[in-house]
Amino acid sequence: MVNDKFNLTGALCIKLNDEVVQEIPNLVVTAGKNWVAGMLNDVGTKVGYMGLGTGTGTAVLSDTALGTEVDRNALTSATVTNNTIVYAATWAAGDATGAITEAGLFDSASGGIMPARTKFSVVNKGASDSLSVNWTITVS
Asked: What is the pTM (predicted TM-score) of this model?
């Protein structure tokens, strides 16, 4: 009997003004696992957006949205290398200002499916700060 497992794991690297301030794991939520299954059959829309929020709730498998979304931007890149994809997004000065505590990947500019979410310690983004996130998803 062959026993092959398919796992999705991820991690984020958050930079504030080009300095790494957090490196954290993410949670691939149930909706994300269902989304991957659909994409394997060419059903669905690819991830094209990343959102930031100020929600305080723990990330759980049943999440379908951020707790308190502040802003969502189109990805600046999505690069596949072997069994990983790295999604990148940037928030310029004046964009998504505040005490950022959560992030999510999305397939739509608003609403849509959120395949992955993470909660983290506060990153205080001031009005003149820039913030960038590289989000790596690994299939193993």
From this structure: 0.89
